[in-house]
Amino acid sequence: MSYSKERHIAELAVQRACILTNRVFHSRVKGTVTKDDKSPVTLADYGAQALVIGAVNKNFPQDNIVGEEDAEVLRQKADVREPTWQYVKETIEQSQEVVGEIGSINSAEEMMDLIDLGVHAGGPTGRIWALDPIDGTKGFLRGGQYAVCLGLIVDGQVTVGALACPNLPVDPKNPDGEKGIILSAVRGQGATLKPLLENICADEPGIPIKMNAPASFADAAFCEGVESGHSNQGQQASIAKKLGITKESVRMDSQAKYASVARGDGDLYLRLPTSMTYEEKIWDHAAGSLIVEEAGGIVSDVRGNPLNFAVGRTLKKNNGVIAAPKNLHAKVIEAVKDELKAVL
Ligand SMILES: Nc1ncnc2c1ncn2[C@@H]1O[C@H](COP(=O)(O)O)[C@@H](OP(=O)(O)O)[C@H]1O
Ligand SMILES: [Mg+2]
Ligand SMILES: [Mg+2]
Ligand SMILES: [Mg+2]
């Protein structure tokens, strides 16, 4: 199968969602609510989830969806529901040219029902879309990096991925220039990048991307998260030292790290667990890991095992994530195993 329709719809869906997230980003009121696990969610997360699920459901109504958010707060709190609905409505009005392809939403009720289609349990069979409507919500709130991330898992294997990164520069050599890129991939067909345009129906083909293949760690740069609670930065620094990496790490939120490594603006992504009981979520890794693999890299857990997307909503068979160029991956895993020998 070519999966060209899936890729096209996924690209349009994450692109339209970014119209909404951008608007919320530039507004004062973000409607931040703290979830049970103490993490933040905003009305942009809810709005983006409704828009993306609307697009998936219109085109692939038989498919299952694992989305990060649910509509419980919106059903209870009119002061979150109403502004979310306003943003969703305005975004649809602003993107009439793609409504034929990725659909409309006609009421706040329909918006909440769409959000709640993301409750699937995941698993080893069938077609399952994994959606992170805003990955890096903390980054989004502080004006850092964030991403809208959508992956299609077919019989347990990530097969299609689209990643929209509104705050990454189009040209990494000009970090203060134009911002916003969209990356996508189909397994076996490579990964591409294009600018995230405001005119989302101008469907230009993406440019193929390839990861760097640095000859040695002395030339390599590594990416890690901003949040010290999400990965163990102390151990990451120690591994970098063991490997002979001399460049300072680049810290950024969200799957923008996978995007940066895939496009060659960085070489390694280290995500060492802060606790061996934390289960990474499939929506935090589906799209990004496929894009890195299709750009020529290897993505694994800290033991060097492939990420297993076939066991539910989380990657419960894995701990942490390591993304690296093919020629360096085995050496990184050696250093990681040495660093973590007390817990592995
Ligand atoms: N203890 C933890 N360890 C690893 N990841 C965690 C974590 N707590 C939260 N996260 C995840 O880290 C994601 C952000 O990744 P990063 O730190 O690379 O920016 C969050 O996604 P959301 O922002 O979508 O909730 C959340 O799912
Ligand atoms: Mg979250
Ligand atoms: Mg996330
Ligand atoms: Mg999220």
TrEMBL record:
Q: Which GO terms describe its molecular function?
A: 3'(2'),5'-bisphosphate nucleotidase activity; metal ion binding
Q: Which reaction does it catalyse?
A: 3'-phosphoadenylyl sulfate + H2O = adenosine 5'-phosphosulfate + phosphate; adenosine 3',5'-bisphosphate + H2O = AMP + phosphate; adenosine 2',5'-bisphosphate + H2O = AMP + phosphate
> Any idea of its EC number?
3.1.3.7
Keywords associated with the record:
Hydrolase, Magnesium, Metal-binding
- List the Pfam families hit by this protein, alphabetically: Inositol_P (PF00459)
Q: Which InterPro entries does the protein's record reference?
A: DPNP, Inositol_monoP_metal-BS, Inositol_monoP_superfamily, Inositol_monophosphatase-like, Inositol_monophosphatase_CS
What biological-process GO terms show up in the record?
Answer: inositol phosphate metabolic process; phosphatidylinositol phosphate biosynthetic process; sulfate assimilation
**Entry annotated with the keyword Lipoprotein:** no
Question: Which positions does UniProt annotate for Mg(2+) binding?
Answer: 68, 132, 134-135, 284
Q: Among its keywords, does the record have Magnesium?
A: yes
List required co-factors. Answer: Mg(2+)
CDD domains annotated for this entry?
PAP_phosphatase
NCBIfam families in UniProt? bisphos_HAL2
Q: What does this protein do?
A: Converts adenosine 3'-phosphate 5'-phosphosulfate (PAPS) to adenosine 5'-phosphosulfate (APS) and 3'(2')-phosphoadenosine 5'-phosphate (PAP) to AMP.
Report the sequence similarity comment from the record: Belongs to the inositol monophosphatase superfamily.
Protein name stated in the entry: 3'(2'),5'-bisphosphate nucleotidase
